[in-house]
Amino acid sequence: MTEDTPPDDSTADASTDSDDDRRAVILVSGGMDSATAVYEAIDRGYDPYLLHTSYGQETEAKERECAEALATEIDAPDSLHVETGHLAAIGASSLTDDEMEVADADPDSDEIPTSYVPFRNANLLSMAVSYAEANDCEAVFIGAHSEDFSGYPDCRPAFFDAFQAVIDAGTKPDTEIDLVAPFVEWSKTDIAERGLELGVPYESTWSCYRDDAPACGTCDACAFRLEAFQNCGVRDPIDYAERPDYT
Is 29 annotated as a binding residue? Predict the structure, then answer.
C-alpha cells in the first residue's frame, strides 16, 4: 500500500533506532516535486539514492543538470542516471515527439494533456525498484500529486496501490520495498509550502516542458509551478519568459 502521510513520531523513532541505515530510491526529474520528495525522504530518516532518467524529453539536458546539482547539494550517497530511448521511439507525447507541440496550459480542460507520456511512470518505477532491490533500499519515493492525477492516469492513487502489489509479487521473498507517494493527495501549493519549510533549493530545479532557459511560463508545468509560488506569496527563483498571474 502506498504511503501518503508521514509516519507518526513513535513509528519514525522506532524505525530510526532499530536501523540506522534506512535507504530510499527517489525518482528525480529535476523538477520541484521530486526535489521536495528528496528532502521529504531525508526528513523521514532515509539515505537518498537518486535515480534520474533521460528518455528523449524536450528539456532533458536541463533536467539532468538540475538532478545532478541536487545530488551534489545533498551529498547523495549514490545517484544513477539512465539513458533510455524507447519512450521517445514510441512517441505519442508532446514531450518526446517533435511533430507534436507542447500546448499552453488549460486548467479547465478535462482531457488527458498531450504532455502525457504513455505509461511512463510504470517504466520509471520499474527501474527504480530494480535499483532499490540491488542496493537494499526499503522504499521508492515518487513526487506525484493530486493535480497530476487529474490529468495523468499513471499518477493516480489506484495506480500506485496496484504497483505496490507488483513490487511485492515481483521481488525476492526477503525484499520489502514500500512505494511512497508522499504528496499524492496534496496540491502543488502544499508541496511548495513543504519545500520552503524544508529548504529545498528551488532555484536549481526545472519544470518547463518547452525550453531549457528561460522557462516559457505558459505550459502546464510552468502554470502549476507559478501558481503554487504565487499562492505561497513567494517569487519563483527561476527565470521565465513570461510570468502570468495564475492565482
Answer: yes
Residues 44-67: pLDDT tens digits? 999 999 999 999 999 999 999 999
Please tell me whether 92 is known to bind a ligand. no
Q: Has 215 been labeled as part of a binding site?
A: no
163 CB neighbour count, 10 Å cutoff: 21
Peptide bond before residue 153 is cis, with ω within 30 degrees of 0: no
Does 148 show up as a binding residue in the annotation?
no
Tell me whether residue 28 is annotated as binding: yes
Mean model confidence pLDDT for the chain: 91
Domain boundaries, the chain: 18-200
Percentage of the chain lying above the pLDDT 70 cut? 91
Rounded (5°) CA angle 197-6-47: 80
Q: Give the tens place of pLDDT for each residue, 131-185.
A: 999 999 999 999 999 887 678 999 999 999 999 999 999 999 999 999 999 999 9
What is 18-200's CATH number?
3.40.50.620
pLDDT of res. 4? 53
* Residue 34 annotated as lining a ligand binding site: yes
pTM: 0.90
Q: Chain centroid to CA 129: how far?
A: 15
Residues 6 or more apart whose Cβ sits within 8 Å of residue 142: 26, 27, 34, 37, 121, 124, 125, 128, 160, 179, 180, 181
Residue 32 is assigned to a ligand binding site? yes
CA distance 166 to 105: 34
Alpha helix locations (H) across 75-173? 86-90, 120-134, 146-149, 157-170
**Is 36 labelled a binding residue?**
yes
Is 219 assigned a ligand-binding role in the annotation? yes
